[in-house]
Design a protein that fits this description.
heterodimer, A: Amidase signature (AS) enzymes, eleven-stranded mixed sheet, 11 strands, 12% strand, B: Histone, subunit A, two-stranded antiparallel ribbon, 2 strands, 4% strand
Chain lengths: 498, 108
């Protein structure tokens, strides 16, 4: 038996070690649990640590190995799970007061599949309430701090997933992306975050925010880690009628192929859309991303200009659709069947009004209201109907661009991590944080963010690779090539408050 | 002029079953007004010839065999109820009349 230093360890290295009998899953789990106890007080990544469950799961992996059974592709990988995934017997709140005390009686397909692959869930991760936000400041419980600078936000809504992966408070994590909620925090925390094709990963047991836009996906320290998680998460599911019955790709192999030889991207055309480099973009972000694109050219890719002319309509389109869907999805929180119920109510309507008024935070209320407004008779066609047509135009832009290129490369976020409070007063400014990530959600196509540099102040910068529907391998190949030629992913955030 | 008035916000809140304080109504009126003004930009986009996109990927409703399979037990389904009465979720009385007052407040 050997040991592994959890700080900076990759999921793939841990799984390889456990599978080879060189590492014990229990020892690995203890190391991470110890880190969480020591370091998470300052970071706020976890809403709930399930130490007992983690030990039980790790022991089961070790027992399987000892008995000569296959302990799984992710054997012993300590996993952080966004609190939006239902976990049987483990409280799941979506970082909302209205779900306080909710203990799901069933398990999400994604967490079940990862457990079957040998992953060891350590606990449930903090997030923006109901995945609504871009800074994690909307958690009803506590903020998450960016491991690179505690004065800065980690991004959102999967802020806990990104920050815990960056700080090695788990080896890898899962989250959900509706308008950028995996990629934007991954960019702001300096890790890899991947949103696959809509329907590639089952939404069963994922608490719904905007059903036509919700994409579960992985976080990893490396491209191959994210690929390994996706391989275990993906695939059709009888419990989700929108899951796609297409064979799951060889994502790890694609990530490794990117690292193969001097020109691993030879023959590949990468499109760069001008519309993703607009005034207002941070100069250091733009410089880092342009340098990354030059590096991809040196890796053999041909860089071509493409146009996504309707990008300027993406945020408006997104917020009309996601709020309409949210107002409908969040109607189920009524104080009757689960979670919080307001005290001292006189009638059923009183119960609904008070429970929802006290149980939801400001942002869910705002989105429920906006969604109710745009769905109203008389406004429906002007707002929601218009947005559905605009969504088609935006998706068509991508289809047209992919006639001229194989994948698209852009910045993930126009700015690095911002400071706490900086955008909270103006919801529209917060919404604009998603301007470069909502397009692939509306189109339902895969996109990956990876680290591509740091600002002078030491904040991470993200590079986004976007591919056509079901072509996740392309994202992993391009990202794998970039990662193999650079060192950004090897940098570790400081262990004490920066 | 704002796209939405405080009275409209109060009416919407009732429809959405959200109790809002007067401070919340004021803030919501401002925020929703600004957001609605922003999304008005969509009017400049020509969508006359495109079909609404309700789904990200082409999608047919799959069907499955109509077979009885295991599902949640009544106890599992009720385990999270803030208040239950036997195999029922308990809520405040809906219809007037004599009998026990099914309060339905906090606790169980």
């Amino acid at each position: 038996m050997t040991t592994i230093d959890a700080r900076g360890a990759t999921a793939v290295a841990i799984a390889d070690g456990v599978r080879a009998g060189k590492l014990r899953a229990r020892d690995v789990a203890e190391q991470y649990l110890d880190r969480v106890v020591r370091l998470d007080g300052a970071l706020g990544c976890y809403l709930r640590v399930d130490a007992e469950g983690a030990r039980r799961r790790a022991d089961a992996v070790d027992a399987a190995k000892k008995a000569g059974r296959d302990p799984g592709a992710l054997a012993g990988v300590p996993l952080g799970v966004k609190d939006i995934f239902c976990t049987r017997g483990v409280e799941t709140t979506c970082a909302s007061k209205i779900l306080r005390g909710f203990v799901p009686p069933y398990e999400s397909t994604v967490t079940a599949r990862l457990a079957d692959a040998g992953a060891v869930m350590l606990g449930k991760l903090n997030m923006d309430e109901f995945a609504m936000g871009s800074s994690n400041e909307n958690s009803a419980y506590k903020p998450v701090r960016n491991p690179w600078s505690h004065a800065h936000v980690p991004g959102g809504s999967s802020g806990g997933s990104a920050a815990s992966t960056a700080a090695s408070l788990c080896a890898a994590a899962i989250g959900t992306d509706t308008g950028g909620s995996i990629r934007q925090p991954a960019a702001l925390c300096g890790v890899v975050g991947m949103k696959p094709t809509y329907g590639r990963v089952s939404r069963f047991g994922v608490i719904a925010f905007a059903s036509s836009l919700d994409h579960p996906g992985p976080f990893g320290r490396t491209v191959e880690d994210a690929a390994a998680l996706l391989e275990s998460m993906a695939g059709v599911d009888e419990h989700d009628a929108t899951s796609i019955p297409a064979p799951v790709g060889a994502y790890r192999a694609a990530a490794r192929a990117g690292a193969d030889g001097p020109e691993p991207l030879k023959g590949l055309r990468l499109g760069v859309p001008d519309e993703y480099f607009q005034p207002g973009m941070d100069a250091e972000v733009e410089a880092a991303v342009r340098a990354a694109i030059d590096e991809l050219a040196r890796a053999g890719a041909r860089i071509v200009n493409v146009s996504l002319p309707n990008t300027k309509y993406a945020i408006a389109t997104y917020y009309l659709i996601c709020t309409a869907e949210a107002s409908s999805n969040l109607a189920r929180y009524d104080g009757v069947r689960h979670g919080f119920r307001a005290p001292d109510v006189r009638s059923l309507d009183d119960l609904f009004m008070k429970t929802r008024g006290e149980g939801f935070g400001t942002e869910p209320k705002r989105r429920i209201m906006l969604g109710a407004y745009v769905l109203r008779a008389g406004y429906y066609e002007a707002y929601y109907g218009k947005a559905l047509r605009a969504r088609r135009r935006i998706a068509d832009d991508f289809t047209a661009a992919f006639a001229a290129c194989d994948a698209i490369v852009t910045p993930t976020s126009p700015v690095p991590a911002f400071k706490f409070g900086e955008r909270m007063g103006d919801p529209l400014q917060m919404y604009l944080a998603d301007v470069l990530t909502v397009g692939p959600d509306l189109a339902g196509i895969p996109a990956l963010s990876q680290p591509c540099g740091f600002t002078k102040a030491g904040l991470p910068i993200g590079l986004q690779t976007i591919a056509p529907a079901l072509a996740e391998e392309l994202c992993f190949r391009v990202a794998g090539a970039y990662e193999a030629r650079t060192e950004w992913h090897k940098k570790l955030p400081p262990e004490s408050a920066p | 002029m704002s796209r939405i008035t405080a009275d409209e916000v109060r009416e919407l809140a009732l429809l959405a079953r959200l109790r809002l304080s007067e401070d919340e109504v004021a803030a919501m009126t401002n925020n929703l007004g600004a957001i609605l003004e922003y999304v008005d930009a969509l009017r400049a986009l020509d969508t006359a010839t495109v079909e609404p996109m309700t789904h990200a990927v082409p999608f047919d409703c799959p069907t499955r065999a109509d077979e009885v399979k295991p599902s949640l037990s009544v106890d599992d389904a009720l385990a999270n109820a803030p208040r239950r009465d036997g195999s029922f979720f308990q809520v405040p009385r809906i219809v007037p009349g004599p009998g026990a007052d099914g309060q339905g407040g906090a606790g169980s």
